[in-house]
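Progress note, project year one: complex with MU-OXO-diiron.
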Amino acid sequence: MINPKVETALNEQIKKEEHSSRLYLSMAIWCEVNGYPGAAAFLYDHTDEERLHQMKFVHYLNDRGGKSVLFALEQPEGDYESLKDVFEQVLEHEEYITESINNLYGLTVEEKEYTTGNFLQWYITEQIEEESLMRTILDKISLVGNDKSGMFHIDKELETMATNKETAA
Ligand code: FEO
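Model obtained:
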């Protein structure tokens, strides 16, 4: 049986991953209606990815003899100032998730829940990749500033990134 403290923390993480999915969905919607179809495709894609993160936790917890619980979620912000603002908030959110995964890992060490610690390794690696990707995108957006053609190219690039991911999957 899984340690009850770890079970509670895993359920909190399930909530956070589900919230991430909805947060990126609201950002994708904003991008789509504000003339950034590429960024929208990228974020729609990311919405699905967060759902997969959530489901991976759900199955793990149930398989370990625990029970996944769903919580009420707060409504995500629907308005953003700019594409830069969107990706600043994405990065900030990913940093928050990384911290949460790290704390969860710390708890598994404290509670000697080594199986869960091992399971979390995948998330630890994933968070390094996600943060690095979002930082790269944000650097590019910062570099072009208000240049419309630069922004157009970034949007195209995001669209290609989304398409490549779908092809790879
Ligand atoms: Fe589930 Fe983007 O971290």
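The mean pLDDT is 96.
Residues 4-168 form a domain with the Ferritin fold (CATH 1.20.1260.10).
No further modelling is planned for this target in the current period.
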